[in-house]
Amino acid sequence: MREEGGALAPIDCERKRLIHREDSVRQQSDAFRGIRTRLLEMAGENNFVTLVAAVSPRSGGSFVARNLAAAFAFDESKTSLLIDCNLRYPNQHKAFGVEPRTGGLIDFLEHPSRGIASIMYPTGVPRLRLIPSGRAHENGGEYFSSFRMRAVLDSLRCRYSDRYLFLDGPPVKGSPDARILSDLADYVVLVAGYGRDTPASINQAVANFDPAKLAGVVFNQSP
């Protein structure tokens, strides 16, 4: 696993559209802490895997995923691992300014001998690491439904009881990948674009997931 490196300053977090502990983003930070509280209440004492998926493209699913992961990392008793599962349009490594020189998720699934630690990158947020998607791929279903993908998530969660996993999934609209990923997750957070996604499209997206796993719908104004 790579060295943690220096922590991002608040001004750098804001430039990357990341929450931090200072008062300038208190409202946004409190909103993500609220989602954190909801998930922890649902889970009890156990760590878990959360899928974050947008209703449609450009509704801000990736924005919510990375900030929710950051909110968990704010708790010094917890660590977060964000996994970019949006294989067509991966952007978490760009958002964090990470250069995935040794590959990402798809590279590991195809060549597991390289070791999972080689694709876990520090983000500049203490206790938050990123697994980027790796090379772009049109169809994630074949990877996400594989035994190897399930085994990787089980291993990542079970190795450290204080580790919480967040899957940044592709939008529900136009692809079955979010539904496939939900089978690997304990909980689902659905992101709707405020003023972008209609009630009908939100209800249609909700119908893709097990109601027992749905933690809620987040209305988001940031793309």
Automatic annotation (TrEMBL):
Transmembrane segments: none annotated. InterPro entries: Bact_polysacc_biosynth/exp, P-loop_NTPase, Wzc-like_C. It comes from the Bacteria. GO terms for molecular function: protein tyrosine kinase activity. Keywords: ATP-binding, Nucleotide-binding. This is Polysaccharide biosynthesis protein. GO terms for cellular component: plasma membrane.
